[in-house]
User: Fold histidine kinase from Limnobaculum eriocheiris.
Amino acid sequence: MKSKKFLYLFMVVTVLIVGLIGYFGYRTLSQESTLNEYQTQQLAKTRVAQTQDFILQQLGQKQIRLSAILAYLKLDPLSLNTLIAQDSDIEALFVLEHNKLVFPDAYNPLNQKESRFIELITPIIQDPAILIAKQHQSDDKRPDSGWYVMQDQQQPVLIYWHRLNERTIGFKLSYVKLLSDIVSSIDFNYEPDSLIISDNGQVLYQSLTRTYDKTKQPTYNQALPFPLHAWKIDYYASNNSNYSLYYFTIGLLFIVILAVGIIALSLYREFNRATRLASQQVSFVGQVSHELKTPLTNITLYAEMLKEMEQEEDSQNTHYLEVIISESRRLSRLIQNVLTFTKSPKINLQPVDINQLLAQIHTIFTPVFEAKGIHLALTVEGHLTTHSDIDRITQIISNLLSNAEKYAAEGKKVRLSASQDDKSIYIRVRDYGKGLSDKELKHIFQPFYRVKSEITEGVTGTGIGLTIALQLAQSLSGTLMAENRDSGLEFTLCIPRT
Assistant:
């Protein structure tokens, strides 16, 4: 129940963390998007201003050129007609003197173009003051030149005028030539963005040849100042840059959330492992209590039987005493296992006669093995001696034999053997039981690990015997290995000869 509650709590905390990461990621994405939009807007504004300055510069150059022409222009009809015929920027011109039209001369025969031009500038002839109506002026100074804009059959007409003494000269600028000069001179490359110049909705110039969505709002637009106030510049920024930002941010969020999930899963698994270990430790206490209780009960029982049969003539005191001694030693080993698992005493190095030690262990375990119908064989190759801790070697071999007696009894045989080479002594405990799978064999030295199979059914144990044996072997600068044989297992304790 507690485990489920913790799982639910863990899931809630994980979801909250992932939610917070997602929220901050969304806020970051929104801020980046806003910043990107602002930067795009500023870029569009800068480029529109750059294009506007270029157009006004082209118009200004034509104004300077026309002013220069006036400095050398003769105002006789022949010179004026020659200028109109030869200058592609000038479609027509007029001269007012004392507010009267002197060129073209309306009293002389006129062609159709001249007649149409006089009809067009009639409002100027009637009231020359309208020329300065759109000009910036102060109270104490009137402009001497400027631009005048009018419409002729829905076509714009640009007139540049200049006042010399009592004369006013006006040039009708070729609108087509002006537009051609501007378009041919523009060399701004704004790809993949698009820039469009229009006059009252009619497209004059487009930076990209592909069509654009007319329903889409431009990123930035601006109308030009007088006299090109009917012109407008629209700038359309490409949206491709935003997609890369979105994809990058979403990908980064996914990686962060995945990392948090992996870390959370690892923490949860570690918590489960710690919980399982704590549960095993609790189970260990119960198992130890049970293991300690059983031999103590046997000791008490056989002691009482020995007392009752003490007076009998045909007494089995010897057998009972052997059982008492065996169970007492088993109880001592269990207690020693617990003590060894909780603390590591100092190593007591001394000369060890392996032949004599194994003979003593064989003598101690033989009655227990015979009680279960198991034959315990002892084989030692040569006379083996070393300098080590005799108590630790005894405990390792005792743990291995105790396991063989509990889990491999059906093999009816256990072999205890020893041999040596130039550097090491090898003590082997070989049983002839059912053995273990390779997967289980990898875990048998882990604390509290018990194999779950038919050979462990009904057999109590703490799961620390082999762990203690391995720790003791390593404390002696040795190793302890387990290997599957044709039938059963073989444990090999390897310790240095010196």
